[in-house]
Amino acid sequence: MSRVAAETVEQVRSLGDRYKYGFVTDIESEQAPKGLNEDIVRFISAIKDEPEWLLEWRLEAFRHWQTMTEPNWAKLGIPMIDYQDAYYYSAPKQKEGPKSLDEVDPELLATYDKLGIPLREQEMLAGVAVDAVFDSVSVATTFKAKLEEHGVIFCPISEAVQNHPDLVRKYLGSVVPYTDNFFATLNSAVFTDGSFVFVPKGVRCPMELSTYFRINAANTGQFERTLIIAEDSSYVSYLEGCTAPMRDEHQLHAAVVELVALDDAEIKYSTVQNWYPGDENGVGGIFNFVTKRGACIGARSKISWTQVETGSAITWKYPSCMLHGADSVGEFYSIAITNNYQQADTGTKMVHMGPRSRSRVISKGISAGRASNAYRGLVKMLPGATSARNYTQCDSLLIGSKCGAHTFPYIESQNRSARVEHEATTSKIDDDQLFYCRQRGIGEEEAVALIVNGFCREVLQQLPMEFAVEAQKLVGISLEGSVG
Amino acid sequence: MLEIRDLHASVEDQAILNGVSLSVGPGEVHAVMGPNGSGKSTLSYVLSGREGYEVDRGEVLYDGRDLLELEPEERAAAGLFLAFQYPVEIPGVGTMTFLRTALNALRRGRGEDELDAMQFLRVVRQKARALGIGDDMLKRALNVGFSGGEKKRNEMLQLAILEPRLAILDETDSGLDIDALKVVAEGVNALRSPDRAMLIITHYQRLLDHIVPDRVHVLAKGRILRSGGSELARELEAKGYAEILSEAA
Ligand SMILES: Nc1ncnc2c1ncn2[C@@H]1O[C@H](COP(=O)(O)OP(=O)(O)O)[C@@H](O)[C@H]1O
Questions:
Q1: pTM for the complete prediction?
Q2: Torsions phi, psi of B24, nearest 5?
Q3: In this structure, are residues A274 and A156 in contact, taking their beta carbons and an 8 Å threshold?
Q4: Closest to A450 (Cβ–Cβ): which among B49, B82, B101?
Q5: Measured between beta carbons, which residues in chain A are less than 8 angstroms from residue B102?
Q6: Deepest of A269, A349, A441, B118, by most Cβ within 10 A of its Cβ?
Q7: Interface contact B162, partner A, CB < 8 A
Q8: What is the pLDDT of residues B32-70, one digit of tens each?
């Protein structure tokens, strides 16, 4: 095992039970006044010293958003959200943006330490570069110098707006236009931070890139925006992790992620989402409404989404691939676990435009308690998708008798030579398997975690090694209390 | 070490065991034989605590403790092991991962340090080799796609690694060809020791040619109808169960 992996194992060992991220950091923060109007949008843009074009873009998005209504088609019971009763900007008070970790508030570093992301050690351990987003702003990006040597840009998006305005202007909204959907439009108006990655032609990014999102302040929405561009023949692997403190109110998280892969480029995007799910009675928890979309613009380009979704009260996300390029490849590997009163409606869209484009979807849904879990997938073969192929496999596992699983595959084909395959299974945790484990001395909860991890294996294998260990442990933690 | 007294048990309200009494001392190997449907597997499930097997009367003492009030995993931690007649497949869980999880769970239960991956690998390799189990089998998902013989050898590997104090072998010989049977028997014999007891459940006598028991019991109609030394097994092989059954009628 590498040193980093051993370290991760240690961190994971020290996990407490239940939701271990539910602490609040006592730190002064700067907030915009509550509510949402054009002035708030201007405030956010001004505080970030943004160019005029970006303010205009935000305002157009905001005006468009005012004409929209919340979607209600997903299989979710969404309690009304009062958009005027939330803060749209919250930042830990700091004089200037930190230049190095030495300038970061020690309270913040301690917070990330508690989360198992010791930024200082990360900096020394080599292997993973981390951008940490605390409420609305990035607080530290490690490894900047090393990445710069390779020409890789990895920084908060607000910094990219200042330092690489042409790249941002060219690609922002190019995959997810501000008119796209209710939450993406809201995000376009008020996004506060997030990460920006640019990998130049022919460069294989020398390390995993990672962002850690944390919602700390009460009544704050987090609207981060991530933009990743991989030029010709480049490669990057990116991972995001998320946590939030336990609070009785619901909090909104509406992110947008855009990926652009040019000829022969490959982007691997992994998520371990562990936002606070609410308590066992369904009180509190994060509403996670995220728009993630990748454009395989180039020939032979590849975008691969891997997600482990264990947190949030409600999850609504469909990481998608727009397969423009000939022979381009889209992949979606997903584990969604819901327990107690959690609801998840997740899946993917694979839109095939390029000839011989291929996509592969492996979805593992696990429900326990009174939770519900839906897979919603769209595979679309457009006229140009000659000889394109899709393979989709959706497996659902039920624990107990009060939970539910649903699969909604939508298939549209406008090209006769395209092939679409869909397989789905639903099973229950098997008593024979449980007894076998227990007879060998493995307690009931550990046995469930083991069996569920086995069920998810195909997806877990897609995660970078360092995070696979943590994800496995999370699977166990999120199912605690689901048996017996 | 194991003291079964007047055990009555039922499955789905159907009485299966009707007063089984049996006493096994440390270091002893006992065989329980009987025709199909006589309740042999039921006895092994009751002893290991499987849900759905109700004890209606009687008691079971293990080292003087009431075995029946323990959860299955507590019984395992106390040193009870059941080699399953039909080992269960667990897709996606590597055999090695499973073995390590089980061993470390038991070690935790006994207050011992867990083994790390390297230490564990050393233990497994050595014990696997003795049973003719290669690395490729250890890497596969637990019992998934294993042949009948491989499954049984895997049970013996777990027995060797978990080092229980009381091992119950339920029809371990079924589905084994003669070579595999010899390998398994050698494995079991190697584990015989003064502080380990074994209960070997079998329909046929052939396994007992290789593992010579101290005592043989005939279970039929939910009761022990006769007990004797190892010669009883040979007698049964020659005469069948009919005579004992008619005596009891
Ligand atoms: N789950 C069950 N439900 C109903 N009857 C059962 C169940 N398991 C076993 N039995 C019955 O109990 C009796 C004893 O079975 P078993 O213990 O498997 O015997 P053996 O192992 O000696 O062949 C049989 O008549 C069988 O049909």
A1: 0.80
A2: -120, 125
A3: no
A4: B101
A5: 437, 440-442
A6: A441
A7: yes
A8: 999 888 999 999 999 999 999 999 999 999 999 999 999
